[in-house]
Specification:
Elements (H helix, E strand, L loop, with lengths): L1 H14 L5 E5 L2 E5 L5 E6 L5 E8 L13 H9 L8 H10 L3 E6 L4 E8 L3 H13 L5 H18 L3 H14 L12 H4 L4 H11 L5 E7 L3 H12 L21 E6 L5 E9 L7 H12 L5 H9 L5 E5 L7 E9 L4 H17 L4 H18 L3 H13 L6 H10 L3 H11 L4 E6 L2
Length: 432
């Protein structure tokens, strides 16, 4: 059996160009086509399903204030029409394969994501290549999609939580492109035209900054052969060099905004390092201690004991560049002064008092379990494979990250709390 597998891999490699790179580790096969496209395949025969993630190093990180939102709008357009079929036909074709296909833009990456029954995996791979490399971006559809996204942005402006999140991003990041949501800014999206989308597509959709990951009931050799046939002809090229403004230096600020609603939202935040930084693991554990689920301090103290919160939590998203830690509390408008003070007290406490060994152990388990839960499906497995490769840390990074989380101590938590929580920005959104 193993002998036949090796022969199949050799046969697939024979179809690749001489400059392709190939490697296989821990059940994951990785190759690089001559045009720069990286391909990662994970064989998983537990269910007759295959998932695909085509990630492009394109998102708000590659945008400017003038075209904020162009990545997500471009992705939305890709599944609205190709040279072979329109948007309805694309959706119908995916449905016939027992799956689906979609595309969206995010902060660091943009993704074309798809699933199919394993017996239809070659057809879905062909559909993905068609969407990625032969989109038509029809002008009439551009106008409809642009109007739809503008409505989504307008709706965010009517939701207190979204307003607080957007205002906090702007306060933390200033002119840095992480300052806006992937949907973009209304005034920028309203100016986007088909010509702008096509020009952006031609700059960003180059194989060198793309990773295709496949996870499911497939054979690596067969996938590699089909990828070479469908994707190998894409022209090589280089995306333009990025010049990303740095976030402004941290400063203690407090802004209060009025938005109609039943609750007030309190966001207290600070800048935090990228997910490749050594402090990432201890900061994730700190985040879990403060606001990670029902065992966290925010939930047990601010919500259960003091009855100061309808909802609460803490976020520290993984980013390629400088990220942010955000403490969040939703409360009754009359409770804002007391709730804000209690939230700040918790942020000071974790700096001044070492967390107990039990708290740290529970938080470590929460962080590790959350990632394990997120990686259960083939779709998410494919995303993790692609994201690691595109970040330059390989798909093995996330297993190393788990090992690093297991090593976090109470002293590590207090150290990063003191390093990053000393200066905070505050945004409060409440009714009149």
């Amino acid at each position: 059996m193993m002998h036949r597998r090796v022969l199949a891999l050799i046969a697939a490699l024979a179809l690749l160009t001489p400059t392709a790179v190939f490697a296989e580790t821990a059940g994951v096969t990785r190759s690089r086509l001559a045009n720069g496209l990286t391909v990662v395949v994970r064989e998983n025969a537990e269910a007759p399903v295959v998932a695909y993630s085509l990630l492009v190093k394109m998102g708000t990180r590659t945008e400017t204030p003038d075209n904020a939102g162009i990545s997500n709008m471009l992705q939305t357009m890709l599944v609205r029409g190709t040279e072979k079929m329109n948007g309805e036909q694309i959706a119908a074709a995916a449905d016939r394969m027992g799956g689906s296909i979609d595309a969206y833009g995010d902060f660091d990456y943009s993704e074309i994501t798809a699933t199919a029954l394993s017996r239809n995996w070659p057809q879905m791979l062909e559909l993905i290549s068609d969407v990625a490399f032969r989109p038509t971006i029809p002008d009439g559809t551009v106008r409809a999609v642009r109007d739809f996204i503008v409505r989504q942005i307008r709706n965010r402006g009517e939701k207190p939580f979204d307003v607080a999140a957007d205002q906090m991003r702007a306060a933390l990041f200033g002119t840095n492109p992480y300052a806006w949501d992937p949907l973009g800014r209304r005034e920028s999206v309203e100016r986007l035209t088909r010509d702008a989308l096509v020009a952006y597509y031609q700059r960003q959709y180059v194989p060198e900054q793309m990773v295709l990951a496949v996870s499911g009931d497939v054979k690596s050799a067969e996938v590699l052969a089909q990828v070479q046939r469908l994707f190998g002809g894409a022209a090589a090229g280089k995306a333009p060099a990025l010049s990303i403004p740095a976030p402004p230096p941290m400063a203690a600020t407090r802004a209060v905004l009025v938005v109609p609603g039943a609750q007030a939202q309190i966001f207290v935040a600070t800048l935090a390092p990228p997910f490749t930084h050594p402090d990432y693991a201890p900061l994730k554990v700190m985040t879990a201690i403060l606001g990670g689920g029902m065992a966290s301090r925010f939930f047990s103290d601010l919500r259960d004991k003091q009855a100061l919160a309808y909802s609460t939590g803490a976020q520290y998203p993984a980013r390629l560049d400088t990220s942010g830690f955000v403490a969040i509390l939703g409360t009754a408008p009359a409770n804002v002064p007391k709730a804000e003070a209690a939230l700040r007290e918790q942020l000071a406490r974790i700096q001044n008092e070492p967390a107990s060994a039990e708290e740290v152990a529970v938080a470590r388990s929460y962080v590790i379990g959350s990632q394990a839960m997120d990686r259960r499906t083939n779709a998410r497995q494919a995303w993790y494979l692609a994201a690691g490769e595109l970040a330059g840390v390989s798909h093995e990074f996330f297993d190393t990250y788990v090992a690093n989380v297991k090593k976090v101590t109470s002293a590590d938590v207090q150290r990063v709390a003191r390093r990053y929580l000393g200066v905070l920005r505050t945004v409060i959104v409440q009714p009149q």
